[in-house]
Structure formats: C-alpha cells, structure tokens
Fold each of these.
Amino acid sequence: MIEWLIDNTYVIVGNQVLRQTIGIPMGTDCAPFLANLFLFSYEFRCLNNLLKQRNFTVLNKFRRCARYIDDVLLINNDNFLKSHKHDIYPKN
C-alpha cells in the first residue's frame, strides 16, 4: 500500500495535474510516519555499524537524541551530527 501511495500521488497547480516523482506525499495521514521511518532506517544503519565496530565513544554522543519527523534534537553531541550527516543520510 505504501508503494502504491508513493507511486500515485498527484498535485493540482492551476489547471495542470502533476505527478509527484520525488519524495513522499505530504499531507496524508501516514506522511509523518513515513518520514520518521525513512530517516530512522539511515540512522539505525549508522548506529548499528558503530555498535559492530564497538565505537562506544561516538555511540554515546547519541544518547540524548530525539526525533520529530525531520527535526533532530541532540544534547551534548559535540557537533558530531553536523560534521557527519553526509555519512548517515543520502545526499538528497
């Protein structure tokens, strides 16, 4: 159902009907959940790799981390996320 929703999102602008081809559809009931799940998948992969490497110094920088849709709150992270966001998330 998620695949169908993403593939069948259209927007009306003036008298044009445009198909959304990039991103997830905003304004639907499931949009916040899809955004959280999408970003969580990248964060989980990164943190899981750090755990496998036993890199507890960096893992501890994410102890006080909270997410709300596409906003992240980090306390005492020493700007780790800012300098390594390209290692966690895709360019787009």
Note: The first helix runs from residue 2 to 7.
Amino acid sequence: MALKSKASEEPMPLPEILVEMLRRHRERQIQQFAARGWKWTPEAQLFLDSRLKPIDGKRDWENWQALLARAGVKRHRLHAARHTTGTFLRATGSDPRTIKEVLRHATTALQDVYVEESMEAMKDAVERVAAALIDGDLSKIMGARRVALQ
C-alpha cells in the first residue's frame, strides 16, 4: 500500500495498553503459525484472518459495521475514527499542534474539518461569556476582541 506522505513513515506514539495488546496478538499469531508448521517472520502481516491470510477488505468493512452496531453507533466509514481521535484529543486537553502531529496533518487548520467541539466545551464557552456579561466585566470580552482585531 502506498503511503500518503513522508510523515506516514514517522514513528507514532502508542498507549502502553495498545502496545501490550499488539504484542499478545503477535504471540498468538506466532503460535498459530507454529501449529501449522510455518515459520513466522517479522515481515509477516500482523492482522490476518483465521486461515492466516491477509484480511479481505469486504470482511473488514463488515466487521467494522458490526462493531459499530454492537456499540450502538450509526454506520460510518472507518475513516470516521480519525475524526473521533481528534475530538477525543481536544476533549482531553491536547493542544492544537499535538493534535496536528497525531493526525499527521500539514496544518492545524485541518482540525476545523476533523475535530468536533464537545457540547460540554461549547456550553462552558457560552457560560463564560454570559458570566462576563452578567458580572459587567466586559474587559474579558473586549480585551479578547482588541487582540483579535490587531
């Protein structure tokens, strides 16, 4: 498979729990190869079907849709997981540059397409504006506006 960009070749940090799950998966696969008298090599694909053949794209799609259905989520393309990742990164406090790097975007502007603000974050933002208006402390609003206009 051709990579989209040079950045696609760069190392990607993974959560330790995912690294451990991948190690266990690889060990099970090595055992499956050995049970068939085959030698597993590091070049072997990590995700294979029960016959130890590359996963069929149609079956992969069906498995993804079944996973979404079990989770009570409407049908989406697998690519939607990138949007979810960006949204989760923002919701947990990651800065825009980090989100850009994780998603391998060229600019932080792409986050406008990929990352959705949570309802909680939007509610918090409008509550802060309302509080400034009610308290009469318009300097918070006007100061931000002056900076934005400069």
Note: Residues 47-77 form one domain.
Amino acid sequence: MKKIITISLVFILAMSLLTACGGNNDNNNPNGNGNNSTPGNSQGTESTPGNNSNFKYGKAEDYIAKNLGDFSITYRVSAGGTEAMDWKTIKTSQGAYFSAGGLAMLYYKEGDKYKMYMGGNGDWMDMHDSVGEEGLKDAIESVTGLMIKYDGFDTEDFKSAGTENIAGRTCDKYTFDLAYAGTALKYEIWIDQATGVCMKYQYDLSVGGQSSGMTYECTEFLTSGVTLPKPN
C-alpha cells in the first residue's frame, strides 16, 4: 500500500508536467517501476485496493514472450486532453512496422541487420541506415510499452473485476482505487487471457476539484497470418 501512495504522488508531479507541456501520449508514466517506495506513515488513506488472488500473469514481458509470436496491434491513445491517435505496430521475424499520425517506419531484415525505411501511404524512402536487434526493440518501444503496462504496478493490489471482450478477445479486468490527501485515483487494466498483452488501460485522477486522465484501447489485434509491408 505504501508503494501505491508513493506512486500516486509521483503521478501528480508527472501530470503537472504533462499539463505544462500540453500533453504527450505515454511518455509521462504515472506508475514508475514499483521499486522506489519510501517508508512512511500510511495514515490518512481513505480507500484500500482489493486483492489479486486471481492475477496469473506475473511479469508482463516474460508472460508475453512465452505466449506471443508474430503480431499486428493497433491502439487508440489519448492523454491530457490531446486528440486521440492510432498507433500501429507489426512485428514478425522479418522485422517491424510502426505507424502513428500518418507517418510510418519500416525495419526490414537484411542479413543480421534491419534496414530502415520511412514512408506514408505505402511509399517507402530508404533511410540508408540499419539497426540490430536492440535497435529494433527500441524503435517500437512506444507501443510495446503499452502492451506490458501492468509491469509498472504492484499487482498484489489489483482487484479482479471479471472479464470483458476487447477487440474480439477475452480479457481479464483488474482495478484499484486510491484516495489519499485530497487525491482520488482510479486505474483499470484489461489483459488478454491468451497472450498477456494489456489490451486497454485507463486512469482517472482528481486533485483539488480538477480531473485528468489517460486512455488507450486496442482496436485490432492479430496473432496469425501477420505479414510486414515490403519496401518498394
């Protein structure tokens, strides 16, 4: 519980920076890594999260690695009052594709490297550059970070909220609520049962009568028959 309190305070600071900057998708992660809690007195806590006796996913990155191969996933993302944007990623053994805001990057395997292309509407421009495996991982981190979002939480504080269907897939839903020192926070997370991918994430924050939040939701998720676009 003390970790959650610390996380909420860090989140308030992150949201103030987000507002000052006019909003910025997922770069202001309110969750931290759950490892920086500060000892202190938890008196004043007005609500307590439930328990996660049904939480079965463990570390997100490890669970997904065991259960997900090639994939194509699209999220609709909005934060801090910004206009919603679709982020799409395709990942296969041949490379990866990422698109957002009408622009796209393609990383196509040639030998032991992935050659980089930039484009839109299917027209690809050779960037005359390439990356290795780690560079490819970094290139699509903005979306894969959404897929493992629950790694940033103390999952023992999750409360099971049943199952729901997101993008045609059965998901386990988890929530927790926190009220502390005039701050009210509510998190909701939906996890694909088959792969462990976070399919939807939503938080709502209220501080001093003002509210803010973030939502992203998967609108398409394919795990078979996935192919990359080919460069011209």
Note: The CA atoms of residues 2 and 39 lie 7 Å apart.
Amino acid sequence: MMLFQSFLLAHTLAVMKLKSEASKLYLSYLWWIIEPLLFVAVFYVVFEVLLGRGGENFIVFLMCGKIPFLWLSKTVNSGANSLVQGKNLMGQRNFPKQVFPFAQVQENLYKQWVVFAILLLILMGFEFMPTMSWWLLPLLIFVNYLLIVLITLVAAILVAYIPDMRMIVSMGTVFLMFSSGIFWDVRDIASIETQNLLLSINPLAFLIDAYRQILMYGNTPDMQHLLIIALVSSIGLVAMYKLYDLQSFKIARRLLS
C-alpha cells in the first residue's frame, strides 16, 4: 500500500512540475521533442559534417543511441538533487523520501514516451520499417526504466549525505556518454573479449546496442543479458526502497541541519 501511495505522490509531483515547466516556455510542451532533436543535430554536425566519421544511416544510428542516453543522463542528473530540492517537506518525518527522486524519474518518463514515438516515426521516414523484433521494444524500454530508477535513487541519497557527489554524478554521465557506444558501434571493437567485457560491465552500452539491433537491424538482442539487467535492477530497487525507509529520519536531519 505504501508503495502505491508513493507512486501516486510521485506521479502528482511529476505532473505538477511538467505543467509548471511548460507554462514558463513559449514553445511549452514542444520542447519535449525539440530538445533531444537539437542534441542529436549538434552531434551529427560534429561527427558527420565536421569530422566525417559518420557513415551510412549515421543520423538514425546516432538517434538510437543518443535518445536513450539523454533519458538516463537528464533523469539521473536532475534526480541526484531531488532530495536537496525537496528538503522543505523533510520536516514531515513520515513523508516517504524516495518520492522525490521517483517524481523526477516519472517526469522524464512522461516526456520520453513522446520522444520515442517521434523516434519511431523518423525511423520509418528513413525506411526502417517495423519488424517482428519491434515487439521487444516495450520490454527493452521497461528494463531501461528500471535501471534509470535504480541509478537515480542511488545518486539522490549519495548527494543528500555528500553534496560533492553531484559533481561525481555529473562526470559519471559524461563518462557514460563516451563509453557506451553512442557515437560508435560497440560491435566494431576488434577484440571479442573486450567487446563482451564492455557489454557486461556497462549495462547502458548493452541497452543502446539492443535498441539498434531491434530498430535498425531487426535482430533480437541477447535476452538472457537483458533479463539479468532487469533482475539486478529489480533487486537493487527493493534494497534502495528499504534503505530509504530506514534512513528517512537521518536524511531529513542531514538536509535540514
């Protein structure tokens, strides 16, 4: 019951923030689409136009990597500060503290559904037609979501106790951007051992490759690997939820001191 109530609170906070944010911008909700497309456009110009390192269908290749990465990076970086930003409610000892990072996750999730819809339309515009593997996309997005929630919860509680951790979190997402195969293909790594190691220790690299395998090549990704990420993320989420409950009073005292 408490988990359901936490979800409802997070949903309400997320919707309120979305409406508040949209009301402050001239283009309102259109920025949900414009912002990720601008990011893709910038990196396309750098790697394809200026450096000439793109290749065939590079714009689609880039979008399939950059859009999932932006979902993770924006959520984690904003969610890392969510407990600090919500400290005005920390005086209520029984208020579930995990609601704050979870609300940030939900806010970005609601934006991401629109972005994914546009991505699919663009793919079809480039003649990447739906295949049977596209049915796996909801599962892939769900696993991606579980991983994002877990990382965000961890980042938020670390920043609550050690404010300097927000810099580490920010640098960590930059490191992921360059090490997860967003601008290059993981499968181009000559050494199979190195390739497998990267996919094993960096779940984002595996997920980005899985998006491309499904959407661009019509292949089925390694389902065992995908389910392992889902299982580990789920176990981690349960552990973090319990940790937030156990540390609820200490988090409030730390942020209000």
Note: The chain has one domain: 2-256.
